[in-house]
Amino acid sequence: MKIEVEVITKETIKPSSPTPHHLHHHQLSFLDQLAPHAYVPFLYFYEFNGSTNIHQISNLLKTSLSKVLTQYYPFAGRVRNNLFVHCQDQGIPFSEVKVKTHLLSDVITNPCLSELHKLLPFKLDEVTETALGVQLNVFECGGIAVGLCISHRIADGLSCFTFVNNWAAASNCGPGNKNSIVGPDFSAASIFPPRNMDGYLGFPITKIKTKMFVFDVSKVEALRSRYEQSIKVSKTQKRPSKVEALSAFLWDIFVLSRPRERAQTLYAVVYIMDLRSRFKPPLPQHTFGNYYRAAMATPTLPTGEKHHGSVRQVMEEIEKIDNNYMRKFQDGYQEHLDFMKKRTEKAAKGELVTLTFSSVCKFPVYDADFGWGRPTWVSMTAMRISNQIVFMDTRNGDGIESYFSLKKEDMDKFEHNKEFMALLRSPIGNVKENPLARL
């Protein structure tokens, strides 16, 4: 399915009030510096009943964006040298485009991630100093899609969703609006001070295939129960979460499908977790920046029948990251940086193969009401990071969307696995009422 767009207008949106001089230098934290040099892409789709005044919608989005940028001023700045953001109200690019070839329902019923990228303001493999870009996509049916590209160097997933929700709250200030604007907390650099990153190159971007799958939540719950019965979890005795169980299942398929290139190859599962809840007391959700940490486990490679050891080992690694660990991590940054350098070196040599899982399940993904209701669908499209799987709740909570970024040969192994395909949601319901029913 090809998507064709035509640019109508382009302009720069600046904060409605000048950023004070003492805030012109937004320092990146240590975790910001470690974040991928990539854009985090989001698409918010909205359907309308009746006629749509696109001019009014466009002005509302731009006015409220200008207003909320006074609080989120780093987005209107420019990222410099992986050290800081120069915040002198340079502004963000805002473009309005016409989608010429499809209705909104056509696009979200049968989404093609490579084509959805045309609804975004930037090419994902062309990262610049600009921290944020917005594109308003107008469909022939009157529906819209708001596309955003947000620099991962200054914001993680939760920070992105919180920003969009505050932007929506600024647009929808009527008496019936329950959402209020909560200003961001920019204390990340004081919690994780920036460090010398010489010698750290990060992970290279490789040619990958991206695809979305939707898992049936009841089938995932059955998988979770099966794993719970097959393992004995130490310490807390808690059940594996749906995401932990699904991650372990996908990890086993990934490892079993790969040839053993060399005997020295190490296979590791990496689970990305939000750190805000790991502090005592927990940090608030509006704490802005990159607050995530990777828990890595190297389960014994399956031989013969699949085993469930990976879910137990991942859970044990996650349990280790508590408040005491967080305090040690703040002081022992050099040990972590050395570990990351060695990890990237091994990966570059083919001595380490990882599969990374990241989840935004239970995040406030569908809270962005600009005054015309919740979005019909929110898509993260796909980041250009190889060997990564991202999970997100469906709109009604009846499924788990997953975004796979893999080499083609690895993707094919999943699509030809009968157990994997059996977990996917079956086409149900009326597509007109449920645009994602065919997924």
Kindly describe this structure.
- Keywords: Acyltransferase, Transferase.
- It comes from Prunus dulcis.
- One of its GO terms (molecular function) is acyltransferase activity.
- By secondary structure, the chain is of the alpha+beta class.
- It has helices spanning 30-34, 54-68, 104-109, 113-116, 157-171, 188-191, 217-230, 242-256, 309-320, 323-331, 333-349, 408-415, 418-422; strands at 5-13, 25-27, 39-46, 78-80, 84-86, 92-99, 132-138, 144-151, 209-216, 266-274, 292-297, 352-359, 377-379, 388-393, 399-406.
- The strands form three sheets. It has a six-stranded mixed β-sheet, with helices on one face. It has a six-stranded mixed β-sheet with strand order 9-15-14-12-10-11, sandwiched between helices.
- Helix 7 packs across helix 8.
- The longest helix is centred in the last third of the chain and has 17 residues, at 333-349.
- It starts with a strand and ends in a 17-residue tail after the last helix.
- The model is unreliable at 427-439 (pLDDT under 50).
